[in-house]
Amino acid sequence: MTMLCKVSFVRRCTTTLSPVVGALASRQKHTLPDLTYDYGALEPHICAEIMQLHHSKHHATYVNNLNVTEEKYQEALAKGDVTAQVALQPALKFNGGGHINHTIFWTNLSPNGGGEPQGELMEAIKRDFGSFQKMKEKMSGATVAVQGSGWGWLGLDKDSGRLRIAACSNQDPLQGSTGLIPLLGIDVWEHAYYLQYKNVRPDYVKAIWNVVNWENVNDRFATAKK
């Protein structure tokens, strides 16, 4: 039975679930965001093969699985099947987090990146870490130290107005896990670096600073403070 047939069937059989069914019928599917640069544009720091596989395969898989999981979740809501809803939560978190994290990650990178941030972001970094170099060392250390797969983040604590470094396991989204608003993320899943850097994660983390898009991070900082 197609999704359209399923929705029509549910509409004929019940009126009490009509708002949920309407949401199911109108929900826009998530899509893989386009990159603003070519796969090879970040070389020699991140090779084209890694970027192509990372974006067109890994991120695409998170998007596809998220759409499938959300579809199943909406069906479970429509049926009032709480057991199924609970069982789908881990997949929603994993694939939704993967989509959120990577969508930020691609914009955090630029072939014209590197150097140091400017303006209010730089002032906040100096205030909260002492210097840009100290922030860089602290974030690099936390990122390299992630056990297994995960992410290192620079985020904003909205309540205190302070910048903080945090690490998240797997694809756990930063804001959902820590409450911090994500500004800059470094992906340390092996698919992000293994083809080029093998098991030497510190070399990858050191190299990625050369392509950090500080303009994007600064824009995120300005938005997060509002």
TrEMBL record:
GO molecular function: manganese ion binding; superoxide dismutase activity
EC number: 1.15.1.1
Cofactor: Mn(2+)
Residue ranges constituting the Manganese/iron superoxide dismutase C-terminal domain according to the UniProt record: 117-220
Subcellular location: Mitochondrion matrix
Metal-binding keyword on record: yes
UniProt entry tagged with the keyword Oxidoreductase: yes
Recorded catalytic activity of this chain's protein: 2 superoxide + 2 H(+) = H2O2 + O2
Keyword terms: Manganese, Metal-binding, Mitochondrion, Nitration, Oxidoreductase
InterPro entries per UniProt: Fe/Mn_Superoxide_Dismutase, Mn/Fe_SOD, Mn/Fe_SOD_BS, Mn/Fe_SOD_C, Mn/Fe_SOD_N, Mn/Fe_SOD_N_sf, SOD_C_sf
Pfam family name, one: Sod_Fe_N
Domain annotation Manganese/iron superoxide dismutase N-terminal: ranges: 29-110
One GO CC annotation: mitochondrial matrix
Residues annotated to bind Mn(2+): 54, 102, 187, 191
Gene3D superfamilies recorded: Fe,Mn superoxide dismutase (SOD) domain, Iron/manganese superoxide dismutase, C-terminal domain
Stated family: Belongs to the iron/manganese superoxide dismutase family.
Subunit structure: Homotetramer.
Function statement: Destroys superoxide anion radicals which are normally produced within the cells and which are toxic to biological systems.
PANTHER family: SUPEROXIDE DISMUTASE 2, SUPEROXIDE DISMUTASE [MN], MITOCHONDRIAL
Protein name: Superoxide dismutase
UniProt source species: Clupea harengus
